[in-house]
Design a protein that fits this description.
By secondary structure, the protein is an alpha+beta fold. It is built from eleven helices and eight strands. The chain has three domains: about 120 residues, Butyryl-Coa Dehydrogenase, subunit A, domain 1, CATH 1.10.540; about 110 residues, Butyryl-CoA Dehydrogenase, subunit A, domain 2; about 140 residues, Butyryl-CoA Dehydrogenase, subunit A, domain 3 (Up-down Bundle), CATH 1.20.140. Helix content is about 50%, strand content about 15%.
Length: about 400
């Protein structure tokens, strides 16, 4: 296997090795019922989640694409994507520090200083320090360029004040990858800085948000004159926009991999269910299943082509097409299964980590996170098709 590049055969051999290992080692404490999985994860079983990620790391399954001097294994990051995909496919316990691994780590490697990499990368890999992401604000979600959280330079520090919202994991995070405004608002994306915010700093308050599913995955973060050393800035001052865009591309790749893995597992169970229906309905449900399969396979093909681009470091706005296709496919999959089951959809989806109904709600959230479907359509029309705004 060449450094940084893997062939399809390499990936499949690696996948087989990991899936055999997972078969023997998947933790049995992982909740597979519909009862508030996230509340349990984040409150009751954080120590087990930490230990699980540490074990994955120590057994050699995490740290691909990360140089050895920062605690990694070198090689290609795609290998690590396979790990996340297999965990999702089998409804096994995921990694706890996913924002650290998927968002902060690649940014530190590409834009961080050596000192930042040495300090932050090893604890991310071992889940010793958990990360969250502070991009969205109450008035800046899709249009991040208007974000209002201020970062004033005073001496060798940034003094940060403002509010962030929808920050997954912020209530357990040690660090936040934060975007703040360090110049004039009129300069839009040219005056945004990306900074490492220690969540235990004075002036940081986290307030959880309760979701429709009953979970509290998200949080608001209130920042009141929080002092952060300038050495925590990633990249240059006022150059945070490119980092934010790169982050979204990474996030979309992994998100699509995981959601297609989950939706394909759901689809396979649905295919089994319709074997049982009476002859008069079978033709109808078979046709629906065929349409779903085409959607899912089309999205997987797009994902594969994006992975190839990612290997060459060319992943860009095309991830929007993949994400739009994948979210449409998973939404249709869960909607169809819910339609088939009717009232039964609220029961536990035996063997999957979610009920069918909860799966449908989850698929709605996926069409918002990492860029809403409407905004992705705008990006495709303007940046890929080069149509007028
Ligand atoms: C599961 C999940 C996890 C998340 N985790 C994080 C996190 O950890 N950290 C973080 O910072 N954020 C996180 N988010 C927030 C997410 O990034 C935002 O919700 C998203 O960017 C949309 O912003 P908004 O919610 O403010 O909606 P808005 O931008 O206000 O959009 C509202 C509606 O208007 C539509 N709209 C907006 N602009 C346009 C336009 N120009 N043309 C057409 N339609 C438009 C949108 O499509 C949407 O339907 C998460 C969201 C979800 C669902």
């Amino acid at each position: 296997m060449r450094e940084g590049v893997v062939t399809k055969d390499d990936l499949e051999a690696f996948r087989r090795r990991f899936s055999e290992w997972l078969e023997r080692n998947s933790p049995d404490w992982w909740p597979r019922t519909i009862e508030s999985i996230h509340r349990r994860i984040y409150d009751d079983i954080i120590p087990q989640m930490r230990a699980w990620q540490r074990r994955l790391y120590e057994e050699g399954w995490l740290g691909y694409g990360v140089p050895e001097r920062y605690g990694g294994k070198g090689g290609s990051r795609l290998l690590e994507f396979v790990i996340h995909e297999e965990l999702a496919k089998r409804s096994a316990a995921p990694v706890l520090n996913r924002i650290g691994l998927v968002t902060a780590l690649p940014i530190l490697l590409s834009h961080g200083t050596d000192a930042q990499r040495e300090r932050y990368v090893p604890p991310i890999l071992r889940a010793d320090e958990i990360w969250c992401q502070g991009f969205s604000e109450p008035s800046a979600g899709s249009d991040l360029a208007v974000l209002a959280c201020r970062g004033e330079i005073k001496g060798d520090s940034l003094i940060i004040s403002g509010q962030k919202v929808w920050s997954s994991l912020a209530h357990i995070a040690d660090y936040c990858l934060l975007l703040c405004r360090t110049g004039k608002v009129e300069d839009r994306h040219r005056s945004i800085t990306c900074v490492i915010l220690p969540m235990k700093s004075e002036g940081v308050r986290v307030s959880p948000i309760k979701q429709i599913t009953g979970e509290t995955e998200f949080n608001q973060i209130f920042l009141s004159e929080v002092r952060v050393p300038l050495e925590n800035v990633i990249g240059e001052l006022n150059q945070g926009w490119n980092i934010a865009m790169m982050t979204l591309n990474h996030e979309r790749l992994l998100m699509c991999m995981e959601m297609l893995a989950k939706a394909s597992a759901a689809f396979n169970r649905f295919r089994g269910m319709i074997e049982e229906v009476g002859e008069s309905d079978k033709t109808y449900w078979k046709a629906r299943a065929v349409d779903l399969l085409i959607d899912l396979e089309k999205s997987k093909a797009l994902l594969e082509s994006m992975m190839n681009l990612a290997q060459r470091g060319e992943v860009g706005p095309e991830t929007t097409i993949m994400k739009l296709s994948a979210t449409n496919a998973i939404q249709r999959t869960y909607l169809t299964i819910n339609e088939y089951l009717g009232g039964g959809a609220t029961s536990d989806a035996d063997g999957c980590d979610i009920s069918w109904f909860r799966g449908m709600l989850w698929s709605r959230g996926r069409a918002i996170a990492g860029g809403t479907s409407e905004v992705l359509r705008n990006i495709i029309s303007e940046r890929i098709l080069e149509m007028p705004r």
